[in-house]
Amino acid sequence: MSQSQTIDITRLIDEKKIDGFSIQLLIFSFIIFLFDGYDTGAIAFAAPELLKAWHVANRAELGPVFSASLFGVLIGSPIFGYIGDRFGRKKAIVACCLTFGLFTWAVVLAGSLNDVFYLRFFAGIGIGGLLPNVIALNAEYAPKRYRATMIIVMFTGYPLGTGSPGLFTAWLVPQYGWPILFWIGGVVPIVAAAAVFLWMPESLKYLVVKQGRHAEVAALLARVKPGLSVAPDAQLLVSDEKQYKGFSPQFLFRDGLALITPLLWFCFAINLMGYYFLISWMPTLLTTSKVLSPAGAALATTVLQVGGTLGSLALCRPMDVKGLAPVAVLFAIAVPAIGSIGYASSSQTLLMIVVFVAGFCVLGLQSGLNAMSGMIYPTAYRSNGSGWAFAVGRVGSVVGPIVGGFLIGRQLPLQHLFVLAAIPAVFGTVACFALMRLYLAKFGGYGLGQQDKLDSAVSHAAASGGGPQR
Q1: CA triplet 224, 226, 227: central angle to 5 degrees?
Q2: Segments in 323-413 forming alpha helices (H)
Q3: pTM reported for the whole predicted model
Q4: Do 71 and 124 contact (CB within 8 A), yes or no?
Q5: How far apart are CA 335 and CA 329, in angstroms?
Q6: 40 Cβ neighbours under 8 A, 6+ residues apart
Q7: Closest to 305 (Cα-Cα) out of 356, 345, 257, 247
Q8: What pLDDT sits at residue 376?
Q9: Which domains occur in the chain, in start order?
Q10: pLDDT at 193 over 70
């Protein structure tokens, strides 16, 4: 009697080369993040027009509106992370695109800043849910030797998207008014949801681990590895992973993750605290201190984003080879980079260089942390693990501007403000090096492909105890 065919999905994906299927998924994900970033940034570009249209004299009333989507992200990341692990990455991505698309479009109908606040909050829920699910999907299709690279490259669409509403503001708002920004921001994600439903693949690993849908897996395998013939009785497996019954947040702290998860969360929160302090207050501080003109401050913000995009791309291959070590190094360099912004104000050229380096480090290492969140957890609850990291990280994004406002209210010198802003990065550096050492101790080696060992260990524990046990 002949032995039935056995196909290890993990090995098949890890051993394949970057091909047309991989590039298509990467481009698809990049475009989705581009839309996601657009919707996040649109409110900042529309704000001056809203103040004029609704005769709002106090600019401080915009503060809650700017923060609304951040609170939504905090809630949406774990909720849609659970949905992604329970019902599939693809379904969760479609739901997220529809959510933030519809609520962004609805801003066109708003009549007050209070209306916009609630609409931005619900849009933020969809925006937050998109992040962990797209990251999980790409992590589960990327060969291990290129996993960090693919996640980081597709995530660069997000910072590029946050600045793109500026183009439409200059081009279309003078003719069509501020609603055009939200027409675009609402309709495009809805179209993207239809495209995802029709063409984006579901995760092979998810289908095998969670549902075992043989016919769908066989059809996807034909796309991933053309020419592979899958027998009707073929055994499909993913590094010995077993079925999980539901999800509990306790899973994120078991089987060697008791310190890894909270350290990852801490690094997320600390770095986003620093980034949102810079992005929120740096233009104002440099303008009010008469260091730069408003146009110069806007240029400095652009330089920060460009530096971050290049920092993210520069981190790709080093992170594939050395794991978290390059991220920890960027955390360490961020300390003097942020702290010296105030002291570099005597020369605009020097200031732009320092701001570029700060963006290179802060946004670059955030891309590395995003990639890490999609790789340290097994397939069965990868979206949940990444979602919780994004949610906790958003606490830092909310706290950063608030603490910055408090410090600015104390009338501290510009130099002292940026030195204080660099202090969180000191703690982040220590935490990131500790996280790197724990990762090395648990899995051995530097490369993030060591996740296979975690998948196997967790699944064997699940098989013996119904859930991951240490």
Answers
A1: 140
A2: 325-339, 348-373, 382-409
A3: 0.82
A4: yes
A5: 10
A6: 69, 127, 158, 161, 162
A7: 356
A8: 85
A9: 6-229 (1.20.1250.20), 249-465 (1.20.1250.20)
A10: yes
